Amino acid sequence: MSCLKPYEPLNTLKPIAEDVWIVDGPKISMRYVVGSLPFTTRMTVLRLSDGGLVLHSPTPLTEELAAAVSELGEIRTLLAPNKLHYWWIGDWKARFPDATAYAAPGVAEAARQRFSGFEAEITTAPLEWGKEIACLPLVGGFMTELELFHRPSATLVLTDMVENFQAERITCPHLRLLMRLGGVMDPAGSTPRDLRLTFFGRRGAAGHAAKEMLAWRPERVLLAHGRCYLDDGEAELARALRWLL
Question: pLDDT grade, residue 133 (50/70/90)?
Fold first, then answer.
């Protein structure tokens, strides 16, 4: 029995703001202590003013999706924003070999048995993103996550730093309980409590990063897991990260 309903339609571009789209993908199972947990997947597509595209945390490639994304512009960047979000990078790289595959610190090692073609590890925005997309590394003991801010649309793109699962999409009571205990239930989504532990000894730097994200004054916050905050982004971000502030 499936415990988590995906965000249909899948593999379909969904406009969020000017030059910003998301694509909801299928569920994926992640190992967790004993057994595994289901997670929905989501890609964000950002378009630069010159038509170049940045694909953040790519979902599974289908020819229909590849064609639809290609119509938006030239796919130039494939980004694995943390070491849990790289699974389909290799498929997109094979289909679009001229795109540059960037990895957050630690991703290349985690992904080496599935994909070894990352051109570079980054912690700051590559030059080709110009001033349109800012990149902020949030460093924890378990992983470093790259947070993106698309300046023209005031859109913040997070990965696992904030999760926001909707109760009506969780069909198994035990999973609903785990998500509630983890502090990641809509509308009060936040940083998973287990992930917070990785900032032990690093909370000062993490708090500084959180304040920097708030200084961007995001209008919306896109998440990899759960309902995105399409309104009141700055207030939602402050609430979700208040444990760091």
Answer: very high
Q: Using CA atoms, how far apart are residues 127 and 118, in angstroms rounded to an integer?
A: 17
pLDDT tens-digit readout, 201-242: 999 999 999 999 999 999 999 999 999 999 999 999 999 999
Q: Tell which residue, 192, 136, 195, has the closest CA to residue 165.
A: 192
- Split into its structural domains, the chain has a count of 1
> Residue 157: which CATH number?
3.60.15.10
Task: Give the domain range for residue 102.
Answer: 13-240
Chain centre distance of CA 80:
9
Q: Which long-range contacts (CB under 8 A, 24 or more apart) does 100-106 make?
A: 100/76, 100/126, 100/128, 102/77, 102/78, 102/126, 103/79, 104/80, 104/137, 104/143, 104/144, 104/145, 104/146, 105/137, 105/139, 105/144, 106/82, 106/143, 106/144
Whether residue 157 is contained in a domain is answered as yes
Reported as a single tens digit per residue, the pLDDT across 61-70 is 999 999 999 9
| Residue 143 forms part of a structural domain | yes
How far apart (Å, rounded) are the C-alpha atoms in residues 217 and 228? Answer: 16
Asked, for residue 39, whether it belongs to a domain, the answer is yes
Residue 128 lies in a domain: yes
